[in-house]
Specification:
Elements lengths: L15 E3 L2 E3 L6 E5 L6 E6 L3 H18 L4 H17 L1 H12 L3 H18 L2 H4 L4 E6 L2 E9 L2 E5 L7 H12 L3 E5 L6 H12 L7 E3 L4 H9 L3 E7 L2 H13 L3 E5 L4 E5 L5 H13 L9 E7 L6 H9 L19 H16 L3 E4 L18 E4 L6 H4 L6 E7 L2 H10 L2 E2 L1 E5 L3 H10 L4 E4 L15 E2 L2 E2 L6 H7 L1 E9 L18
Parallel strand pairs: 7-8, 7-10, 8-9, 10-11, 12-13, 12-18, 13-16, 15-16, 18-19
Antiparallel strand pairs: 1-2, 3-4, 5-6, 6-22, 11-21, 14-15, 17-20
Helix pairs in contact: 2-4, 2-7, 3-4, 3-7, 4-6, 8-9, 10-11
The chain binds nicotinamide-adenine-dinucleotide.
Length: about 500
């Protein structure tokens, strides 16, 4: 739900970041940032005016003139400092994240930490943004490439990783010499803003990093702005497809990482205890609000007998506020998200799936107003049911059955999404076959959430991704730069002229 409200609530305002200054928006449209465990209003976020968005882009454009020429070491040291500041402020960042997003404190630290890894990677930009050189491509001629920044780039982020995903974007964009305009999720922008404060404290010059807030209008303004050269988007397939089409038509480079329906296959030779732990953690952790959450498990053959044990394990998970010790499953981001997930559970029952565990209306003492749904498990799930066809984005696990590994692989490849997948097996041959034949970006072998570390790039296939290059890793260096190829001849003073060359051959 992105509709702004004009209700005045006396909570602190979230600022815009323009030209190195945190400024109050002049907008009349505000939205509350709400603690999803308690409904406490934590802050008000503005929907920036068109003038404010233009000002942010203009400041990034101006800053680019000097930032693009800034030495590698200067850029690199900002991220060395930023990683230190993030480490020093880890507990505070996690607490802020839990308050506005809902996930448990340890998982909030994980959210910050996975972003911190990208900051560490950005500090090594000197080794990443390297061109190529070929000596003597013709007589006295060398050819080399330089990877030059694009200009003003923009990032649009979702609510579910308000630390990690902004950190996927601005550190690598800035490290490669671009300037940046970030549009965080309007549902939980506070930890993102704190990270931006730390980025300024680490030495990011004014105008190099800017932040605007808002929803649809702000995103469309970014897609249309003539001075923005590239956009990184992470969010739902519907919005990502819109952003990709609109911004591409405007001549921008765009990468969109989008929705998912992540399947795991359980082969009966898998280690049962390890597998059931992995499945429960990946399906219900973060209340299922991860783009890499496991939402479908295909039980092959004898492993179909493991359902009661999986249900028993899911029942042991503690549903409570993210700040409570021992909590496994926190609240969903909003009342609307909870209502949607509950509605889908009802549809699942109506569509004929078997409800093995019902997480609707859990009792959560002390958090009676929170947006909680407990772990929910359906078996007998088939394509055509809404719980299978839609991304639920809640703690709901769908179980399906297959007789063979081939059938299970075919099942996954027939789903339109291709974000993440996993296989659980003790057989190298089964794992290798899976790895070869599955058409999904991130593949886990006995790893339920295979999010790559930043030496590699996040990826995705089919409906989960638009654009060729993924976030972080080597691919994002290509995304945020353009290749210039220089062919150079330096004549020796003693070189005798060979006369006029009217051919295309280098002589
Ligand atoms: P969302 O698409 O609703 O929002 C993403 C961004 O788009 C936000 O900044 C939002 O303000 C903006 N937006 C929302 N509606 C818009 C509209 N109509 N027009 C233009 N902009 C709009 O996504 P979300 O609910 O915040 O996040 C959850 C989704 O993100 C899930 O589908 C999840 O799978 C996906 N996700 C994907 C990845 C990945 O790497 N593939 C990672 C995290 C989340």
């Amino acid at each position: 739900m992105n509709a702004p409200t004009s209700t005045a609530v006396l909570a602190p305002t979230v600022k815009l970041l323009i030209g190195g200054k945190f400024v109050e928006s002049q907008t009349t449209q505000w939205r509350n940032v709400v603690n999803p465990a308690t409904q406490e209003v934590l802050a008000r976020v503005p929907f920036a005016t068109p003038e404010e968005i233009n000002a942010a882009v203009a400041s990034a454009k101006e800053a680019f003139k000097t930032w693009k020429k800034t030495p590698i070491g200067t850029r690199s040291r900002i991220f060395l400092k930023l990683q230190q500041l993030i480490r020093e402020n880890m507990s505070e960042l996690a607490a802020l994240l839990t308050a506005e997003q809902g996930k448990t404190l340890p998982d909030a630290e994980g959210d910050v930490f996975r972003g911190l890894e990208v900051v560490e990677h950005a500090a090594g930009i000197g080794n990443l943004q390297l061109g190529e050189l070929a000596n003597n491509v013709a007589n006295g001629v060398d050819t080399y490439t330089v990877l030059q920044p694009l200009g003003v780039c923009a990032g649009i982020t979702p609510f579910n990783f308000p630390a990690m995903i902004p950190l996927w974007m601005f550190p690598m964009a800035i490290a490669t010499g671009n300037t940046f305009v970030l549009k965080p999720s309007e549902q939980d922008p506070m930890v993102t803003m704190r990270l931006c404060e730390l980025a300024l404290e680490a030495g990011t010059p004014p105008g190099v990093l800017n932040v605007v807030h808002g929803g649809e209008d702000a995103v469309n303004a970014i897609c249309d702005h003539a001075d923005i050269k590239a956009i990184s988007f992470v969010g739902s397939t519907k919005v990502g497809t819109h952003v990709y089409n609109r911004a591409s038509l405007n001549g921008k480079r765009v990468q969109c990482m989008m929705g998912a329906k992540n399947h795991a296959i359980v082969v009966p030779d898998a280690n049962k205890e390890q597998t059931l732990n992995a499945l429960a953690g990946a399906a219900f952790g973060a209340a299922g609000q991860r783009c890499m959450a496991l939402s479908v498990v295909i039980l092959v053959g004898e492993s179909q007998k493991w359902i009661p044990e999986l249900v028993a394990k899911a029942k042991t998970l503690k549903v409570s506020g993210g700040t409570e010790k021992g909590t496994d499953v926190g609240p969903l981001i909003s009342c609307a998200a909870r209502d949607r997930v509950v509605g889908l559970i009802e549809r699942g029952i109506a569509d004929g799936a078997t409800l093995e565990l019902d997480g609707r209306n859990p009792s959560v003492p002390g958090y009676e107003k929170g947006n909680f749904v407990g772990p929910t498990i359906f078996s007998g799930v088939k394509p055509g049911m809404s719980i299978y066809d839609q991304e639920i984005f809640g703690p709901v696990l769908c179980l399906a059955a297959a007789d063979t590994l081939d059938e299970a692989i075919e099942f996954i490849n027939s789903n339109p999404n291709g974000n993440g997948t996993a296989i659980f097996t003790q057989s190298g041959a089964a794992a290798r076959k899976f790895q070869e034949e599955i058409d999904v970006g991130q593949v886990g072998i006995n790893v339920p959430i295979p999010v790559p570390v930043p030496i590699f790039s996040f990826t995705g296939s089919r409906a989960s991704k638009l654009g060729d290059l993924g976030p972080y890793g080597k691919q994002v260096v290509m995304f945020y730069t353009q290749t210039k190829t220089v062919t150079a001849r330096w004549f020796d003073d003693s070189t005798v002229s060979q006369g006029v060359n009217t051919t295309i051959s280098l002589k």
